[in-house]
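Quick question, first post here. What does this chain look like in 3D?
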Amino acid sequence: MNITTARTYNFDDTVNIKALLKPRIHQLIELVNQSYETGAIVYWVDEVQNVNRHTLDGSWLPDFKWCHSFEIKNVDYSDDWFTINVDTVIRGAEAILSGKVSVSPSLRTQIVMGIIGEDGMDSDAVDVLMQAGLFGEIVFG
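> Answer (accepted):
Ran it through. Tokens below.
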């Protein structure tokens, strides 16, 4: 897949998402935060707990606004709690970019561009990214 913006990026099914994302950890955190702060996943989340606003090294910053991780539950899907964090974003991106989870070409492009920091993601893209990372498929919506 070729994506052209100010730069040209070439992606294929063998892309190493972890290598692509390693220098862009803030983008991953932003996506976790977006899934928590916006309505992207609220339509399928029944309960939320353990919201973590600590820095990555575990220290606490009282004015630190980004949510790094949180747990969710959907009682119709499972009695288990699922953690959304940067690993969820990576698993979701890997599943979508490898084709294991099928999404529309426009969502796929939006997810890639959002992860690499070239553009933001809308709620639909964040939603499918989180579902792919948590469940390995699109369960809701």
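Confidence is low (pLDDT under 50) at residues 1-11.
Helices lie at 17-21, 25-37, 86-98, 105-115, 123-135.
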